[in-house]
Design a protein that fits this description.
The protein is mostly beta strands. Helices cover 14% and strands 38% of the residues. It has 3 domains: 104 residues, Thrombin, subunit H (Beta Barrel), CATH 2.40.10; 74 residues; 132 residues, no CATH class.
Length: 359
């Protein structure tokens, strides 16, 4: 198991050719929001005390993309004397941040939408960069093609991938395609995102463009296997069962935890958000105290109230529905706030989440 020791951070600003600058040693604060569904990841990155020339370049059109890499270096390895100075061949395709007890990786890659300059009450100046992952592809990718009679959903999927190629979006996790054969041909002409929503309905899987990949993910194909979250692996405080926004947990930055992935939480560590007066006073199915009941729909457990809190997973496995990552390279913030739901349940409510975020 990797150890959360010594923060690792990299900030890269790139042009359309992949060339650019690294600003990893500056004071940087960042917030990244990533939620289940087709809505893209959004990042706000504030870089402090840049030289005027560098700030002007960021404010201009020189850079179009931003990348953030974060996590932990892990314990410092002590190498035997005979290995010092010995050449070691490294494969450029290796995930260096996940070896030798390290745990860092790419947490955001997106298109820069705007850069704003400002100054705090202190002498510190800053440039705020706001970016969206896959914005160009989601907003502007189009498809113009014809599918012959006898085509299937996979054929539609392949046509949409070709429409994403000009934006350097490649195939990620494929959906499970139905066996339906369509007797008539059809013409495709319009935004790729519109047709991706059609594939979503046909395949019963959510799509997202993340880190330059098109992924279709569902309960049958999570983004990753369950990652154990406890005090030793980076869990901060106790997870909370809420109403409409699932189970909320906080942990140290871990690039391996992704939306539509799974985490394992200790059932005994979950605590319940207080119930509303309406739920406390409502007439229950039986007199006496409010009781815990088994949900017939998915086998998880909840309370017999009008608006039940998030379910407790029967096996301790929860699906990650949302992640807000917050960091400060010179401060204390270095964590991820997770919105989860018991695997197989439908506790997560996108409308309620957006309503609370805007209030």
């Amino acid at each position: 198991m990797s150890q959360n020791w010594l923060r690792h951070f990299e900030l890269q600003l790139l042009d359309d050719k992949g060339q650019g600058i690294a600003l990893s040693d500056f004071k940087v604060t960042f917030t990244i929001d990533w939620f289940k569904g087709a809505s893209p990841r959004v990042a706000e990155v504030k870089i402090y005390n840049l030289k005027p020339d560098t700030a002007h370049k960021i404010m201009g059109d020189e850079f179009s993309k931003i990348r953030l890499i974060a996590g932990y270096e892990g314990p410092q390895t002590i190498y035997p004397e005979e290995t010092v100075g010995v050449e070691v061949r490294i494969n450029p395709d290796d995930n260096v941040g996940q070896k030798y007890d390290r745990n860092y990786g790419l947490i955001f890659s997106g298109d820069i939408r705007i850069a704003i300059a400002g100054r705090d009450a202190t002498p510190d100046t800053w440039v705020l960069v706001q970016a969206i992952d896959g914005h160009e592809a989601i907003s502007y990718a189009t498809v113009s093609s014809t599918l012959s009679k006898g085509h299937c959903v996979r054929d539609l999927y392949q046509a949409l991938l070709k429409g994403l190629e000009p934006y350097s979006i490649i195939k990620g996790v494929e959906p499970v395609f139905p066996t339906t054969i369509f007797p008539r041909g059809r013409t495709l002409h319009g935004k790729v995102a519109t047709y991706l929503d059609e594939v979503k309905k046909l395949c019963h899987a959510d799509w997202q463009i993340v880190d330059g990949r098109l992924d279709f993910l569902s309960a049958a194909s999570p983004a990753h296997a369950a990652i154990v979250l406890n005090s030793q692996s980076g869990l901060i405080s106790l997870p909370q069962r809420t109403t409409n926004t699932g189970v909320n947990a906080k942990c140290l930055i871990n690039p391996n935890i992704r939306v539509n992935g799974l985490v394992h939480l200790d059932q005994s560590s979950l605590y319940l958000q207080k119930l509303s007066e309406e739920d406390i006073g409502a007439v229950a199915d039986a007199p006496g105290r409010i009781q815990t009941i088994d949900k017939k729909s998915d086998g998880n457990r909840t309370l017999n109230v009008k608006t039940p809190p998030a379910s407790v997973a029967a096996d301790g496995i929860y699906e990650v529905c949302g992640i807000t990552t917050v960091g400060d390279t010179r401060g204390n913030d270095w964590h991820m706030s997770l919105i989860c739901q018991a695997r197989g349940s439908s506790d997560y409510n996108e409308k309620s989440r957006k309503g609370k975020a805007s209030s």
